[in-house]
Amino acid sequence: MIMGSRSKRTVGLALAAGAALLVLSACSSGDASGGGEGGGSSEGAIPLGYTATLSGDFASYGLEMREGIDLAIEEINADGGVLERDLTTEVVDDEGKPANGPVIAQEMCDNAEIPAVLGFSFSSVALSGLPIYTQCGLPIVASAATSPELSGASDIFFRTVFTDAYQGAEAASFISEHRGVKKVAVLYQQDDYGKGVADALSTGIEEAGGEVTSSQAYQLGTVNFGSTVDTALKGDPDAVFIGGFYTEAGKIVNQIRDAGSDIPIFASDGAASPLFLDLAGANAEGVEVYAAFSASDPRAESSAFVKAFTKKYDKEPSSWAALAYDATYVVSDAIESAGSTDRAAVAEAIQNTKDFAGVSGNISFDDEGNRVGDLTFQRVEDGKFVVITD
């Protein structure tokens, strides 16, 4: 079981060009031959697949996940590796394009040394490649793919992030019960993620006896939300909920405040990013979001992770970094428990994960591969996300 002391050492990254996609191989101590002092054997190192959006407008989620993975692998290797072997990564930029999902899946499947795959910024990319991963029996532990369509879609798919359906319902409960909100204006990005969260939240609000005063979709990349904000505020809601990424959420918050409104604002986990704080600036104060992780979590596992991450990257970790870090430890623990890198054995061990003490909380998986656990609700205070205790 890889659940003990988490020391660390440096892992370098070696770059290699792929035929159709950019493929990056991360090797211990900067090359394929060095294990480093205190590490496992570099001979026969175990490569974990990692695919996410690492370029373009929405690269931040993938890059943040990769930071969590790199840190976890450094610690695991410094602690003796897995089955006395180092871990490495085989990294592919999916560019956020669903068409790339099957291509990458086939590439991962064809590498018989890969026992599991991490990552996925977008559910659409995971969905497009999932039939191929399923066919070759290669297990996935995703960290940002939240679509309910992935629930039970394959017996080799798991995730450390919570589903849109669960998160939206929990947000509705929090807003209704703990904030006394009866009327909500909903804004959401026009895709599976935004609509999934908005639908679940809207249903929850109405089941609690509340009212959705307006529900408006917007396109990714939108800059001017003037008419959207006007429509939302004209319904005289008690609060506004934003289901979307930090890029648009930051702009919406600014434009609500610029309109002279001090209405309470709630947002989905897509806004739980340090970049949201940068975009919204002082207007972010008081905004409440949900996520699986907070850097202010006082638990020992979380505080140790935040300390190690901050030392390595000179910044606090995002929720995505934490979820990917946990996914890496879940996979390494499963390989150790299986006693081999056999894909079927690793998938079974992942399914049997129970109450794994992750930095984002205890991790278990239900029969559909979904994470079982609790969200954290957070408020922006003095420019930081702080766990809400009231």
From TrEMBL:
CDD domains documented for this protein: PBP1_ABC_HAAT-like
Keywords: Signal
Record InterPro entries: BCAA_transport, Leu-bd, Peripla_BP_I
Endpoints of the signal sequence: 1-28
Domain spans labelled Leucine-binding protein: 46-383
Similarity-based family: Belongs to the leucine-binding protein family.
Protein name per UniProt: Amino acid/amide ABC transporter substrate-binding protein (HAAT family)
Source organism (scientific name): Leucobacter luti
